[in-house]
């Protein structure tokens, strides 16, 4: 991470804090000026149909399970390779970690198929 990366990260933090401060300030203005009804996102939640929320949940279930499994396989794979360099006899004993990570991805796919058919497989 070089000097320019630190400056970019610093500016990103500053911008995010400014945006957060402006949102809080706007909310306080609406609440304290007796116009708090304008600071409401309930209409957005009611305007989105329930099927859309279901599709979002299905998409998140499969994508997060696959991303989690891929991250687990990456972490355990690098540790297995690092351990295999030091002690070659242990490289096959740690494959159970990889199998469990793949099981997480398979579970996500099963939940996707289960929810796709309305709860019946």
User: Which percent range fits the helix content?
Assistant: over 70%
> Residue-averaged pLDDT, rounded?
81
Total helical segments: 4
- Provide the succession of SSEs: HHHH
The main β sheet shows up as: none
Name the poorly predicted regions: none
- Could you tell me how far the N terminus lies from the C terminus, measured between alpha carbons in angstroms? 49 Å
The dominant shape is: flat
Strand content: under 5%
Kindly provide the radius of gyration, computed on alpha-carbon positions and rounded to a whole number of angstroms. 24 Å
Task: Describe the protein in words.
This protein is an all-alpha fold and 121 residues long. The protein is 79% helix and 0% strand. It contains four helices and no strands. The protein has helices spanning 3-32, 42-47, 50-86, 95-116. The mean pLDDT is 81.
Keyphrases for this structure?
4 helices, mainly alpha, 121 residues
Q: What would a concise description of this structure say?
A:
The chain is mainly α. The protein is built from four helices and no strands.
Secondary-structure blueprint of this entry?
Elements: H1 3-32, H2 42-47, H3 50-86, H4 95-116
């Amino acid at each position: 991470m070089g000097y320019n990366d630190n400056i970019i990260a610093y500016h990103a933090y500053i911008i995010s804090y400014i945006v957060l401060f402006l949102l809080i300030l706007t909310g306080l203005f609406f609440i304290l000026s007796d116009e708090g009804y304008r600071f409401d996102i309930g209409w957005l939640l009611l305007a989105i149909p329930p099927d859309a929320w279901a599709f979002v949940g299905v998409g998140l279930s499969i994508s997060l399970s696959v991303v989690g499994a891929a991250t687990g396989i990456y972490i355990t794979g690098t540790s297995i390779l690092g351990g295999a360099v030091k002690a070659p006899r242990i490289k096959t004993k740690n494959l159970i970690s990889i199998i469990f990570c793949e099981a997480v991805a398979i579970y996500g796919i099963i939940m996707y198929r289960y929810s796709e058919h309305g709860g019946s497989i």
